[in-house]
TrEMBL record:
PANTHER family noted in UniProt: HYDROXYACYL-COENZYME A DEHYDROGENASE, MITOCHONDRIAL, PTHR43561
Organism of origin: Capitella teleta
Span of domain 3-hydroxyacyl-CoA dehydrogenase C-terminal: 204-301
Highest taxon above the source species: Eukaryota
Record flagged with keyword Transmembrane: no
Annotated localization: Mitochondrion matrix
GO molecular function terms noted in the UniProt entry: (3S)-3-hydroxyacyl-CoA dehydrogenase (NAD+) activity; NAD+ binding
Name used for this protein in its record: 3-hydroxyacyl-CoA dehydrogenase
Transmembrane segments: none
3-hydroxyacyl-CoA dehydrogenase NAD binding domain: residues covered: 17-202
InterPro entries linked to this entry: 3-OHacyl-CoA_DH, 3-OHacyl-CoA_DH_CS, 3-OHacyl-CoA_DH_NAD-bd, 3HC_DH_C, 6-PGluconate_DH-like_C_sf, 6PGD_dom2, Mito_3-hydroxyacyl-CoA_DH, NAD(P)-bd_dom_sf
Length: 305
């Protein structure tokens, strides 16, 4: 490990400007922490309306961070918010937004065709040295890298929701990812205050490969009527030290997101057919078909608004 980090540090470039594509839940969090830690950031989304909402969301989150970080010095807190906001610009023109950037982090909708189209366009527009990374939860990074001519400058940066709070960042490397690129991604992760772990490009990397089967087993427990949602959550919080119970977590992350991984576009049930942990759940599918997606729609397994 030591040998690799020595040899790979040669030629690695410091990331100064970051372009985050997608200003949704994850993209706005990523843009926020990058700006918060001194990077110049451009956040891209499809319309000014969406970007205005992303900025409002960031401001709300920043004020929570400022309140905590500068508890005894509100003026310093105000400065911190202003400085961070100053470093953050927005753009609806993807090509324009990558003209002078060192790192592009893609956090758009989890759809392989749309992501590939985006990356292929970016490949023509961005400078040679620019590193590309995807925040995908469940799609293979290699399928995204192949729509570019820079697999050596391509990797995964998998953040967790809520981005400003969760300390972990998974850095995914392909066999083609160069040592210098990988080191730049790790350095960037540390610069934005995360603890990084290295993962290969296998389904779910580390966290979701373990978290998804665990959550699906909790849903099946509920489905069989073996325990109530409340009891499953209390059991795992108090009995196993989780900050959220598994059913509560599905409501938080989104029922559609979980379905998407199991038997939606990512189809882990098909890519791992011998593993019953990835079997679809009728209860989950029924709630999704009724539009009950959890926190984002106000109704899910436990949430009833
Ligand atoms: N921005 C800034 N700060 C925030 C925040 C945000 N969006 N959300 C919460 N916080 C801060 C709060 O200000 C609060 O700070 P203090 O402790 O200083 O008061 C702290 O975080 C805790 O928040 P709350 O008191 O509101 O609530 P909580 O204690 O219940 O924590 C939680 C909320 C952080 C979401 C916590 O329950 C948690 O960590 N849950 C687990 C989330 C998780 O597992 N995420 C991973 C999902 S999987 C994934 O993301 C991968 C994927 O590919 C799908
Ligand atoms: P989201 O729906 O909140 O945001 C996606 C944003 O991308 C939207 O604002 C949409 O307008 C924008 N967008 C779509 N196509 C675009 C394009 N071509 N150009 C520019 N913007 C475009 O989704 P999210 O939850 O932020 O997820 C984004 C990515 O992060 C997905 O790949 C997802 O798998 C991954 N992820 C999600 C979570 C989570 O808990 N939600 C956690 C880790 C990773």
């Amino acid at each position: 490990v030591l040998k690799r980090s020595f040899s790979s540090s040669a030629g690695r470039a410091a990331i100064k400007h970051v372009t985050v594509i997608g200003g949704g839940l994850m993209g706005s969090g990523i843009a926020q922490i990058a700006a918060q830690t001194g990077h110049d950031v451009t956040m891209v989304d499809m319309s000014e309306d969406i970007l205005a909402k992303s900025k409002a969301y960031i401001e709300q989150s920043l004020s929570r961070v400022a309140r905590k970080k500068y508890k005894d010095d509100p003026e310093a807190g105000e400065n911190f918010m202003q400085e961070t906001t100053r470093r953050l610009s927005t753009n609806t023109d993807t090509r324009d937004a990558v003209q002078n950037t060192d790192l592009v982090i893609e956090a758009i909708i989890e759809n392989i065709d749309i992501k590939q189209k985006l990356f292929s366009g970016l490949d023509n527009a961005a400078p040679q040295h620019t590193i590309f990374a995807s925040n995908t939860s469940s799609l293979p990074i290699k399928d995204l890298a192949k729509s570019t001519s820079r697999a050596d400058r391509f990797g995964g940066l998998h953040f967790f929701n809520p981005v400003p709070v969760i300390k972990l960042l998974e850095v995914i490397r392909l066999p083609e990812t160069s040592d210098a690129t990988f080191q730049s991604l790790v350095d960037f992760g540390q610069a934005v205050g995360k603890t990084t772990v290295e993962a290969k490009d296998t389904p779910g990397f580390i966290v979701n490969r373990l978290l998804v089967p665990y959550i699906m087993e909790a849903v099946r427990l509920l489905e069989r009527g073996d325990a109530s949602a409340r009891d499953i959550d209390v059991a795992m919080k108090l009995g196993a030290g989780y900050s959220m119970g598994p059913i509560e977590l599905v409501d938080y992350v989104g029922l559609d997101t979980l379905k998407f991984v199991i038997d939606g576009e990512s189809r882990w049930n098909e890519s791992m057919p011998d593993n019953p942990l990835f079997n679809p759940s009728p209860m989950l599918n029924k709630l999704v078909s009724e539009g009950k997606l959890g926190l984002k729609t106000g109704e899910g397994f436990e949430i009833r608004m």
